[in-house]
Structure formats: C-alpha cells, structure tokens
Design the sequence.
C-alpha cells in the first residue's frame, strides 16, 4: 500500500507543480491546493499505513496507528485552509484592481 | 586594562568628543584640540625609549575572548615603538598642518578629525597588538578610515572612485591575510605572534607553510602598495593633502612593511620568503620610479615615488631575511639590509612627509598641482622652495642628506646578496643590484623634475587659477620645516637614532640570532672611501641628469603620453565586467514572473535531491512490512488521480471547482481508510467550506483561458514537474523503508501511554493538539486570525487617489 501511495503522491505533487507554472492565478491556486493534499498524504505514508486501530484508546486495540503525523496533518489542513482563503480573496482583489489574472501582464513595477 | 591599552584606545575615545567640540566651540579650530592626542601619546611613547634601547620589551595582557585564544594583548618592542613614534609624531605635525590647510568655515571638520583619530587608534593597534586576530581587526579599521578620508570630498567623482578602489584592494588583501592567519593558527594553535616566533620551526617544516606565507604577504603587499596591488595609491591622492602625507606616505602604507618585518622571524630563513619579497619589492621600485616619470600631477609623482620607495624597503626586508638562514647576526654581510630598511623607513617618513606638505602648500596657494602650469615659484615662495630642496635632495640620494646615507646602505645590502652562497644569490641575485641601480636613476630624475618644473623656469601666472600667488602662512610652514629639520639633523648626525631606535628595531626583526650578550652595533657614516656604492651613486647622478636634460625627447614617446597604469586598466575592466556580469545574472534570475521563480526553486531542489540520493546512496526500497491493499482502493485512487490530472487542462472555472473539490473529498476518504478519523472529519469540513467560498469568489472572477506557452517552456515545465513528482515518490519510499530498517523507538508510544493518564483524553490526536502541544495550536489560531484580518482588509480597504503603496 505504501508503495502505491508513494506513486500516487508523486503524481499529485508533479501535477501541482505543473499547475503552479501556469500564468493564471486561479490555476496557481489549484496548484497550491493539490500540493498541500500531496504533502498531507506524504506525511501519513512515511509513518506507515494501517499499522493498527485509529489512535483512540477507548477502542482497546493491541496496536494503534501513529498519532503524531495525524496531529501534524490536522494543523496543516487548518493552516492551509487559512492560506487558501487569503489567496482566493487576493485573486479577487487583483482582478478588481487590475482587470486581469494573467501573471505575464501583472509582472514588473514602475520603479523596478 | 593598562595604561598602554588606554593609549591605544585614547584616539577612539577622543573621537567621540570631536563632534561636540566642533559644534559648541566653533570659534576655535577643532584641530587644536585633536592635536593634543598624538602629542600626549608621542611624549608617552618616548618614555618607553629607555626600556627598548636596552633590548627590553613590554607585554601587557587583557583577556577578551580567552576561550578562543583571542586576547587584547599588547606587545611593545623596538619595532613597535619605532612605528608608534612615527604614527604619533608625524600625526601631531599633520594635524597642526591641517589646521591651516582646512578652513574651519567651509569644511566639515568634525568628520575629518573623527576619521583621522579612528585611523590613528587603529594604526597604533596594528603595530602594538600581539594577537593576530586583534591585529587584523585594527588592520581593517585602517582600511575603512583610509577610504573614508579619501572620499572626504565625496561630491567629487574621483574621490569616490579612489576611495572605492583603495577599499576593494586593501580589504581584499586584509581578508586574504585573515586566511593566512587562520592557517598559522592551524599550524601553531596560537594567535600570539610571540608564541609563533617561538614555534617557527614547526611552521617552517609544515606543509601549510607556503600557502600561509603567500596569503599573509598578499595582505602586506596590498597595504604597502606593492606591484600589482599598487594601483590604489595614486587614486588615493584625491584625499586632502594632510591625509596623503599621513596615511599614504608616512604611516598606513608602512603597515605592510611592519607586517613583513614582524613576520620575518616567523617565516624568514627560507628561499621562498627571500625571493618573493625581494623580487616583488625590487620590481615595485622600478615600476613606481618609471611610472612617476610619466606623471604631470605633483601628488601623483609623489604617490608613485612612495610606491617605489616602499618597494625598496620591502626588497631590503626580503634580502635581510637571509640572516635567519645563516643564523649569524654578528656578520654585517647579512644584517646590513635590515639596517638599511629601518633607517630608510625613518628617512622616508621625514622627507616624503615634508614633500607632500609642500605639494599641498603649492596646491593651496596656486590652485593647481599640474607641473605643466607651474614654474618659477623659487622667488615667490622661498621658504617652501628651501624645504623642497632639502626633501628632494634626500629623496634623490644626494650627499650629505639622509637619503644618501640610506641609499648607500641600500646598495650595500642589495649587492651583498651576490655574495650569498645559497638560493641562487650568486647567479640570478646579480639582477637585484642592477635593477635597484636603474630604479635609483629614475628616482633621481623625477626628483629633478619636481624641483625644476615647479620652482625654476618661467613663472606663468596666467595659467594658475589663483589670482595672487604668495608664500604660505607661517602656521602651514611649521610642520614641513620641522620635518626638513629632522632630515638635516639625521643627515648631519646619522647616528643620533642608532642606539635608541634603529638597534632595538633591528633586534625585534632579527631576534635570537646574535651571539649571547652582544648587540647590533650601528655606525652610519658618510665617507666609506671610493667603493662600489659610491661609484653607483655617482653614475646615478650622471645618467639621471642626462635623462632629465633630454626629457623633451622622451616625452614625445607614446608611453610617456599615457599616464594611466596598465594594471588600472585591468582593474577598471574587471570592475565593469563584474557589475555587468551581476546585472546579467540578476536579469536572468529576477524576471518578475512567478513561473520562473518556481522553476528555479523546484529545479534546484530536484537536482540537489537527486544528487544527494545518488551521492550517498540514499534510496532504499523494500516491500517488507507494507500493509494490505483493499481492492476498492484501486478505484478510489484512480478516480483521485484522474480528477487531479485533469485540472491543468480544464477551461471552465466551474469544472475546475468541481474537480478540486472532488479531489479534496477523495483525500478525506483516503484519510478515513488509513485510520485517521479526525483528519477525515476536518478535511470534509474544510473542503465543504472551501467549495462554498470558491463559489462566492468565482462569481466575480473571469473564466479560465487557454494559455499561449512556448513549446520549449512547456517542455521544461513538464520535465521539472515530472522530476519533482519522481523525487517525492522516491523520498516517500525511502523514508518509509528507513523507518522500517532503522531501529529507533517511535515517540508516539509516549503519547499513546500517557494520553489517558496525564491529559484524561481518549482520542490521542486531539489530546496532542489541545494538551501536549497546546501552545502550538494556540499559535495556529493566531495564523488563522492574521489570515482573517488579511481577507477582511483585502475586501474592505480601498486606497485613495493620492495614496501609494
């Protein structure tokens, strides 16, 4: 399972990077979103999958799945949500002020 | 902290007062206060003469960073004292001179005197430090204060150019020297010069000997303007003349000489040290003399002349290091060169200092330093002319002036090399006296040029910027007169300094090679009988005169017309190339396009990662301990991959949202399968809110368009993206496998065991978040709050017309 997951993660990661190469801010946004998905899965996979019951002690199982990566990923999901929200509003604001979402047209400044 | 430490720090401390003196006591020229510092220090250092003239020395310790062996230890012996007296003595005269040179109405004297005091303190630190790291720090302060003084009139382009150049060259040398010092530390495990001299046997036989020596010498050569690092000195002449006289002829440029003299007991005794220093010195002497002939600016001639004379002293120090090979201090055959070096060091400071001040006076009174415009000043400025005659005659080496005495000794010292029976002294060594002799002819000729072009000939008032030319004010003449008197004094009584200064200095440069209980016995006299040295001087005078008489013929040559140094041309091109090169690199890097930045970052990361995996054989693959795959997972994962892989190609924003949301929900499902119910829950909620939010925002955004991307760029994008994906897969597999192989206990056990006991919770993930790592979670909330503020301000705030980011 871990090997298969590693390949899946690689595919998602590569696609995410490819999306971030785009000149459209929306596509870049999709890219960052996918990037975080792949990293979350990566953290989970590296620790080993399905090594026991869910880490809830009241289940009284012999072994439990490692709770640490899960705690980290949970934090990451929440932070990622905050960043996604911010970036979407940023895209909205850029389009309102500049009338375009094309990074090619947005590059450069007067005093550069 | 002893009185000696305070003496070194006194100029720095006094510098703090200067701005206040300048501001609140405007009626009195600030220089009068500042002059007290070197004057008091000079008297203080004179009191040490009795100690050092008996061969004694003073060591004062002050612990700074004892754990690293870096201590502010001061060591005062004959050599240090000679330099300390030069720094404070000439410093006093220079400040006195500057009081009349720089007007207290127009000039920013507070800046000037702060820089001068900085320099003075740093220079005292250089010559008195026993610890090479402390020495290095002071060394760099002299470079910085020198650059600040050169750019004192910073509105002039030439000043800024000169300051930059001197800064680059000398700081480059300083850093190189630091490298050499580090190697010395590696060899001897001490930063103390005293202890290095004691352990010089280890250094001589160490494999790092040559690199350390060369690195230290680069530092000394840059500071002392030796070929090919001499180019900064002529441009440093943009500084006010007191600075040129002080830093760039009498003291700072001699720091390199000091370092070589100080390090002679450490490195001396080998052929490399002997030949590198002697040949660079003698070539610098020739190059400086030849270049001086082509200059039309009085200060430029003096600058090249200084380069030439520094080369001469340097070559003498090289030749004198042979005494360590023979370990025979009693034989004058080997020690005369060192004697000549010390003696000429003093003489050069006296006559060159006075000549620079004279050049400043001429500039001040006539408004120009161009020898093509000057002439006939002899009758108008008789006192200045007299000082010049004394200084120039000494520089040209005419009897009976002190320059003649040291030049005779120089010839003796350098012809002695021929009699050395090692290091090819008797074969290639013959070149040394020949070059020295030719260079001396140039010295004579440019001395003649300065005198005859400035003071003789026809007075041309119409070419001079000043309206009425007259003799300088008395105050301005005091300092050059004092120095000229010093020249005369040494000329008439050459042995006046022999016992008190020259012999102790020689003892410091050549320690431990005298027979027990004996001293260097210095006896300098004018008449040696008709010998080789005298004949050399006579021929120098004859040929020099002939060259001067036929100067018209030489001045038509192309090489005479161009007065720019070939090395300067190389420096300028290199400098421009460096600027253009970095602009080019920056242009490639900083395109202002997100795509390029991400390409560079991810590309570099991928390459580094693959290199590391390959280099350290870090890829591991094993199927052991992998978990079972439930058949339905294939379907889930296939759908997940398809929904994500389609994302780059969608045109409709709606399809994009649906695909992204779909991917997110599938990830939540995967979490559930992998025994992570909390993650699945959170992911579900976040994904739901996100989709709603996308909908709200997308209503205001345009549809996605097809992008026009060049095929080549697209290919690169695909390659980097594929590489990144592959990298992550490999890292994931390796990390998992290593986790199975390496027998490390997981810290998860602690949380699983203590979750109930310590925190009273059953859900371990939740307990970790809110209890064990509760502070992290709180800060996470802070991030959320910041993002929320960002969102609100992006929606609500609008800039007014005139506002600007």
Sequence:
């Amino acid at each position: 399972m871990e090997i298969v997951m590693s390949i899946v993660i690689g595919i998602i990661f590569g696609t995410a990077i490819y999306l971030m190469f785009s000149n459209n801010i929306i596509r870049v946004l999709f890219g960052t979103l996918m990037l975080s998905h792949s990293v979350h899965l990566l953290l989970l996979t590296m620790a080993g999958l399905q090594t026991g019951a869910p880490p809830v002690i009241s289940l009284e199982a012999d072994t439990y799945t490692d709770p640490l990566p899960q705690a980290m990923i949970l934090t990451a999901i929440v932070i990622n949500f905050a960043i996604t929200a911010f970036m979407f509003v940023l895209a909205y604001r850029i389009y309102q002020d500049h009338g375009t979402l094309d990074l090619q047209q947005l590059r450069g400044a007067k005093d550069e | 902290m002893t009185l000696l430490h305070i003496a070194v720090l006194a100029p720095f401390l006094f510098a703090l007062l200067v701005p206040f003196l300048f501001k609140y006591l405007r009626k009195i020229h600030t220089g009068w206060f500042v002059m007290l510092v070197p004057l008091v220090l000079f008297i203080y250092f004179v009191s040490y003469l009795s100690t050092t003239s008996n061969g004694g020395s003073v060591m004062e310790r002050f612990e700074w960073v004892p754990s690293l062996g870096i201590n502010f230890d001061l060591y005062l012996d004959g050599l240090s004292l000679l330099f300390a007296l030069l720094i404070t003595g000439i410093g006093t005269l220079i400040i006195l001179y500057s009081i009349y040179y720089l007007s207290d109405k127009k000039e920013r004297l507070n800046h000037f005197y702060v820089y001068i005091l900085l320099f003075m303190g740093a220079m005292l630190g250089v010559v008195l430090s026993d610890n090479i790291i402390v020495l290095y720090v002071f060394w760099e302060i002299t470079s910085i204060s020198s650059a600040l003084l050169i750019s004192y009139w910073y509105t002039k382009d030439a000043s800024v150019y000169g300051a930059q150049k001197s800064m680059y060259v000398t700081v480059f040398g300083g850093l190189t020297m630091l490298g050499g010092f580090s190697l010395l530390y590696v060899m001897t495990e001490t930063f103390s010069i005293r202890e290095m001299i004691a352990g010089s046997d280890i250094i001589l036989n160490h494999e790092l000997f040559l690199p350390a020596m060369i690195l230290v010498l680069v530092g000394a050569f840059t500071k002392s303007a030796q070929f090919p690092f001499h180019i900064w000195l002529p441009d440093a002449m943009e500084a006010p003349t007191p600075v040129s006289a002080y830093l760039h002829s009498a003291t700072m440029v001699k720091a390199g000489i000091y370092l070589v003299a100080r390090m002679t007991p450490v490195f001396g005794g080998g052929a490399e040290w002997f030949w590198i220093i002697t040949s660079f010195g003698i070539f610098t002497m020739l190059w400086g003399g030849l270049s001086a002939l082509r200059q039309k600016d009085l200060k430029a001639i003096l600058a090249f002349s200084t380069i030439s004379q520094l080369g001469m002293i340097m070559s003498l120090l090289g030749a004198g290091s042979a005494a360590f090979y023979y370990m025979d201090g009693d034989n004058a055959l080997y020690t005369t060169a060192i004697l000549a070096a010390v003696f000429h060091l003093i003489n050069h400071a006296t006559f060159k200092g006075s000549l620079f001040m004279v050049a400043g006076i001429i500039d001040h009174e006539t408004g120009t330093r161009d020898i093509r415009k000057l002439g006939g000043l002899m009758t108008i400025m008789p006192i200045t002319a007299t000082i010049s005659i004394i200084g120039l005659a000494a520089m040209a080496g005419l009897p009976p002036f002190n320059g003649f005495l040291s030049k005779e000794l120089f010839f003796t010292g350098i012809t002695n090399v021929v009699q050395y029976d090692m290091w090819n002294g008797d074969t290639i060594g013959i070149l040394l006296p020949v070059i020295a002799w030719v260079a001396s002819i140039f010295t004579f000729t440019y001395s003649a040029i300065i005198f005859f072009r400035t003071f003789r000939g026809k007075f041309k008032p119409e070419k001079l910027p000043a309206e009425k030319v007259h003799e300088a004010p008395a105050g301005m003449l005091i300092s050059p007169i004092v120095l000229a008197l010093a020249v005369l004094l040494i000329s008439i009584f050459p042995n006046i300094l022999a016992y008190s200064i020259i012999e102790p200095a020689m003892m410091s440069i050549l320690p431990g090679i005298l027979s027990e209980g004996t001293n260097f016995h210095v006896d300098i006299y004018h008449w040696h009988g008709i010998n080789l040295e005298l004949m050399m001087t006579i021929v120098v005078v004859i040929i020099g005169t002939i060259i001067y008489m036929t100067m018209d013929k030489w001045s038509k040559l192309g090489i005479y017309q161009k007065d720019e140094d070939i090395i300067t041309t190389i420096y300028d091109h290199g400098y421009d190339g460096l600027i253009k090169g970095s602009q080019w690199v920056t242009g490639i890097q900083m395109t202002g396009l997100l795509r390029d930045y991400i390409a560079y970052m991810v590309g570099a990361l991928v390459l580094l990662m693959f290199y590391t995996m390959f280099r350290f054989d870090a890829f591991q693959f094993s199927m052991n301990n992998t978990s079972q795959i439930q058949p339905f997972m294939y379907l889930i994962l296939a759908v997940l991959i398809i929904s994500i892989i389609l994302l780059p190609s969608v045109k409709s924003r709606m399809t994009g949202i649906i695909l992204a949301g779909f991917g997110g929900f599938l990830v939540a499902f995967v979490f559930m399968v992998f025994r992570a119910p909390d993650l699945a829950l959170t992911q579900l909620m976040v994904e739901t809110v996100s989709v709603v939010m996308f909908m709200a925002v997308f209503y205001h955004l345009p549809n996605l368009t097809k992008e026009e991307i060049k095929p080549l760029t697209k290919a690169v994008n695909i390659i980097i993206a594929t590489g990144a994906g592959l990298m992550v897969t490999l890292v994931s597999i390796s990390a998992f496998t290593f986790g199975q192989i390496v027998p490390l206990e997981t810290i998860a056990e602690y949380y699983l065991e203590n979750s109930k006991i310590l925190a009273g919770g059953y859900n371990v993930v939740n307990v970790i978040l809110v209890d064990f790592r509760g502070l992290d979670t709180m800060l996470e909330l802070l991030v959320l709050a910041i993002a929320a503020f960002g969102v609100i301000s992006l929606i609500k705030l609008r800039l007014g017309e005139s506002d600007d980011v």
Notes: Residues 22 and 65 of chain A are 38 Å apart (CA to CA). Chain A touches chain B through 84 residues (CB under 8 Å).
